[in-house]
Amino acid sequence: MSLPSIDSFLSALQQQLGDAAVQTGAAVEARFHTDWSGQPPVAPLALVRPRSTEEVAAVLRLCHAHRIAVVPQGGLTGLAGGAVPVQGCVALSLERMNAMEAVDARTGLVTVQAGVTLQAVQEAAVAAGMVFGVDLGARGSCQIGGNVSTNAGGNGVLQHGMMREQVLGLEVVLADGTVLPMLRPMLKNNTGYDLKQFFIGAEGTLGVITRVLLRLRPMPQAKATALVAVPHFDAALAVLQRMQGRFGNSVAAFELMWDSFVQASIQWQKLQAPLAERHPLLALIDVDGKDEASLRDAVEEALGEAMEAGEVADAVIAQSHTQARTLWKLREAPAELNTQMHPPINFDVSLPQADIGRFAQAIQADFDARWPGHHTLFFGHVGDGNLHVSTDGATVRGECDAVEAALYAQVERFHGSVSAEHGIGLHKKPFLHASRTPQELAAMRAIKAALDPLNLMNPGKVFDL
Amino acid sequence: MSLPSIDSFLSALQQQLGDAAVQTGAAVEARFHTDWSGQPPVAPLALVRPRSTEEVAAVLRLCHAHRIAVVPQGGLTGLAGGAVPVQGCVALSLERMNAMEAVDARTGLVTVQAGVTLQAVQEAAVAAGMVFGVDLGARGSCQIGGNVSTNAGGNGVLQHGMMREQVLGLEVVLADGTVLPMLRPMLKNNTGYDLKQFFIGAEGTLGVITRVLLRLRPMPQAKATALVAVPHFDAALAVLQRMQGRFGNSVAAFELMWDSFVQASIQWQKLQAPLAERHPLLALIDVDGKDEASLRDAVEEALGEAMEAGEVADAVIAQSHTQARTLWKLREAPAELNTQMHPPINFDVSLPQADIGRFAQAIQADFDARWPGHHTLFFGHVGDGNLHVSTDGATVRGECDAVEAALYAQVERFHGSVSAEHGIGLHKKPFLHASRTPQELAAMRAIKAALDPLNLMNPGKVFDL
User: Fold this and answer.
1) Where is A27: in which H helix or E strand?
2) What would the CATH number be for the domain defined by A100-218?
3) Which of B180, B353, B444 sits opposite A443 (nearest CB)?
4) Which residue ranges does the record assign to the FAD-binding PCMH-type domain (chains A, B) (predicted)?
């Protein structure tokens, strides 16, 4: 495109939205150049910060007419590079679309603009006497639109499902500016294709999410937290099955930590060891219920039975909220990864649940052989089949690419997923083939071409055309 | 297409699958000509009953080469006409693909061919010590592939969600015979578009579902059933909110029956009245728990509080399984609709939950004015926002079309859905516009054209191109 044409595009943009909502060139703040993924920063042609769906539609119509790519941006906390600008694009930040439009406590529904933070939704839910089903570390910065676009996971998946299962409706603007108002507040709505599903997890490649209708969940009246030492992975699965058999969907969390992770966490965060001895694995278990005391008794009884069955070697049940927080502190080591590893090589993979133990063993053996002395931590939302792995780049001669290739090769061998919850973005694009067949990728490209024939929406993310 | 070409197509079909798997012309049994919707029967050009995914792919490749339409058929229990053959089509029945391939009790996963009945999955789940999340009246005949294709609802939605939320993976054959093996057994799998979502609820218009990976749910150890009389709709919602606030996701059913329905049910099924007096509304409530006696006590306590708050006028809690079944019998009147109404005009609509009471009143008033003496029943899965309405055609001068138009006009006015759980098929195609904007329909057509460019998959269902 010739420069005069770009100039006329930019002035049309400023005319449409007003100067305050448009920044161009060097005036675009650096924070919009990349996200938490560590991908190299890219300056967009312009940054727009619309305040309404109508303004988003106007921007997209204009970009469509001028064949300018659009990269939607939420809280920029993504770990896969999905919101990093591409050369010559308009970065479309939703941060000014942060209205909490409606909270209906009676029917447990919330309607928000896409730029509202996750934490704001969580707080609105609690104020209405309910809870929101998704929680993750970036809650204060990440935005609902980004959570939907990446189908965010986090700590509540075991009980409430991923972000997809919290979404009752979406308003989306397509590449040509068409608005799809899929916001009818019904749990059940079988009227043709459930279009909103197409945009959940699409990482902004099919349209811009502008408004979201979310369902809330009942607030549990009591919660029990236990830290449980198990001798091996199959015992951990047996404990999970036992707890779910007894407490059903009230098992709110089942996080597993391998000993290497536990030791790193204790050291990095200067914690006291939670149990007298070291064990191969520790499970953090949350259970919801009606009454603290009787719930603790029931959890103690279930864990006692598990101990008799040889599934549990030791356990502690929190006697207070403070003690529960102390136990959960052990799980918060990931916040230290960036300062303690040089650099951390982080993985977010999913595996058939029964195979997670064997997968971790295979990785450990593989890395032991190739990088003796490597420092690798295993932990994750094992109740969901989701394992996180972090390897210290300094302990593998900085061979980050080789570590990635080795791990994803094992994921492919175990028929796992190279991305459980973080998405593909730019970062995992080279490995997508390990979890998807060429036929599946062709079907995705056909969908992309159908909804965005000019390939203007977040081009080059997830897959190349 | 000329006749010689059809002959060569049919002989190629028979050569591919063997004579036993192919019937043509008058040899096709009448049961494959229509479904439970009452749509006029249509004889297909041929009926094929493949035994494997490979055979399905071979059929679709052949149909694609000869430009022959394909109508997938499951148990033919659909109420919207989605599986009724179209002129000149191949009807593709999945009934021979009824293998229960794998049941993994430890991780709660089941893999089945698409032709397995819902009941067979339910029984396999129970044999593995778990339950399957979807249940509906046609369980003995309907097939899992059809349940997925229509995103079936039923009695378990409040607790476990629709069929969509039970599906972890799908194998689908596209119109050109391409097989998409989206069967990785992971709860979390953010690797590009979640393609399987596109086929759930697509009513066979995007491909043929051949295998399904399902998740099971923990089996509740105890269940309490209560029949609760409430004075008005808002009180019913208050009771639901109260029960969910106390029992969370353990509230397994919340079915509401208006008095007209209750009286018809008592009369048709020759039941004893369950309560001493008549009430405007009765709610059937199931709650899961750990222990029958303490659960009944807790439900009684909660209902006692609701009574003090004026939300409940009378209630009975089942003291045995037999009594629970007797209470649930009241909800089974719909099985009598076809013999008791002449004909029944049935509706399956969804509304913003808070508006269901006002919607029912509006319909009643509307019909009272236009068809004095009409007999109309209101009932439904109100916990899910799903209302069923049945009007006796004999009491509205047989003006079935006018009754439909009047009801769907109110659905549009209340921003509801013309199909909560039955789908669109042929039957509701004229009313789809009441729940979807032209822009949404255009996006659906674009998706359809992307995955089935020759419009061979179940053409003319859901929408016209």
Assistant:
1) none
2) 3.30.465.10
3) B180
4) 40-219
